[in-house]
Design goal:
Blueprint: E1 4-8, H1 14-26, E2 29-33, E3 48-54, H2 64-68, E4 78-85, H3 92-100, E5 104-109, H4 129-148, H5 161-178, E6 181-183, H6 192-196, E7 202-205, E8 208-211, H7 220-224, E9 230-232, H8 235-238, H9 249-252, E10 256-259
Parallel strand pairs: 1-2, 1-3, 3-4, 4-5
Antiparallel strand pairs: 2-10, 6-9, 7-8
Bound molecules: flavin mononucleotide.
The site of flavin mononucleotide has 25 residues, from helix 1 and strand 4.
Length: about 260
């Protein structure tokens, strides 16, 4: 086992990019992806264990909380977590803290991947897309430095009660939203969406994707579509698409990524 382990969920690459940049600063790190149930859960051999994940509707992405329950960490390991979000981190950090007692946690805002709600350039504090990426990279370097120095956060992360209500309502809303997916005549049937869907919710029928309703709203399919052929209602047709510039679809679907 590597000296460091980072569990990571990422729909549009921001969190995987953050996890990789932290791992580069730490050295010898396995990034274990949580888009599906993680393939390794016993990390009692790791000295430092981290979690990097986005805020979805005030909470953790679907399935992550269930997967966290299966993870075994040595009680003496150093534990840290980073939430990425467009504006507010939601309840995710406090959920992870309640399970593993975090030594250190951080919030980093980046571009908004929720295309039907806001343009991707919506983030707090406001920044240019290039500025947001640059800041995320410098935050990752700082976080790695502080993790190596075993820095401790002064206070535990707090959960806003409004975010709890929002995240409890989300599973119903995201299922409803999933009914709105469609594909335009631009689709070339390349299958990128099928490969990327963490829920196997997209099937190729007669060369065109068909969408079911078992959807986490990670939006990997829509944001990584090379033809920008996938839409959810009219608003997404008009909005500029976004995925992290450093993360490819092939990398996003790996189950473990090792960084020396
Ligand atoms: C379905 C969905 C819900 C989101 N909800 C929130 C939210 O409640 N608060 C927030 O600040 N950002 C929210 N975001 C923005 C993401 O947290 C942000 O874009 C993050 O950087 C995405 O990380 P990723 O590229 O690794 O998936 C949401 C994004 C999606 C797709």
């Amino acid at each position: 086992m590597s000296e460091n382990v980072i569990f990571c969920y990422s729909g549009t690459g921001n969190c995987l990019d953050m996890a990789k940049n932290i791992a580069r600063g730490l050295g010898d790190t396995d990034i274990i992806m949580m888009r599906r149930a993680p393939t390794v859960t016993d990390v009692r051999g790791a000295k430092r264990v981290g979690f990097v994940f986005p805020c979805y509707a005030g909470g953790l992405p679907g399935g992550v909380e269930e997967s966290l329950n299966s993870i075994q960490i040595n009680p003496v390991s150093y534990k840290f977590a980073v939430a990425q979000c467009a504006a507010y981190p939601g309840t995710g950090l406090s959920i992870i803290d309640s399970l593993f007692h975090l030594d250190y946690w951080q919030v980093v805002t980046h571009q908004c991947s929720c295309i039907w709600l806001f343009p991707h350039t919506m983030m707090m504090p406001p920044l240019t897309p290039e500025g947001a990426q640059k800041r995320s990279e410098s935050e990752a370097a700082r976080i790695a430095h502080e993790v190596l120095g075993l820095k401790r956060s002064e206070k535990p992360p707090k959960a806003n009660p409004l975010n709890k209500i929002e995240s409890a309502a989300w599973p119903k809303l995201s299922g409803k939203k999933a009914k709105g997916f469609s594909v335009s005549s631009m689709c070339i049937g390349c299958g990128t969406c099928v490969k990327l869907c963490p829920k196997e919710n997209i099937r190729m029928i007669d060369g065109k994707p068909q969408f079911g309703t078992d959807c986490l709203q990670c939006l990997s399919c829509l944001q990584y579509c090379p033809q920008e052929a996938i839409t959810i209602g009219r608003i997404t047709e008009k909005r500029e698409h976004y995925h992290n510039p450093n993360i490819s679809p092939d990398e996003l679907v790996k189950s473990i990524i090792h960084i020396d």
